[in-house]
Amino acid sequence: MKRQKRDRLERAHAQGFKAGVSGRSKEVCPYQSQDIRSQWLGGWRDAMEARGGGLFR
User: Buried b / exposed e across 2-26, counting CB within 10 Å, b at 16+?
Assistant: First the structure.
C-alpha cells in the first residue's frame, strides 16, 4: 500500500514538472486531492525555478 501511494505521488510530481517545463499554468493541475495536488504543484514550482535558472528554454 505504501509503495503504491508513493508511486502515485512521485508520478504527480513528475507530471507537474513536465507541465512547468513546457510553460503551462499551474491552474491546469488535473488533481483534486490535496496530497496529490500538492505534489503536482511542487513539481511545477521546481520546473519554474529550473526555467528561471536557465536550465530550460
Answer: eeeeeeebeebbebbbebbbeeeee
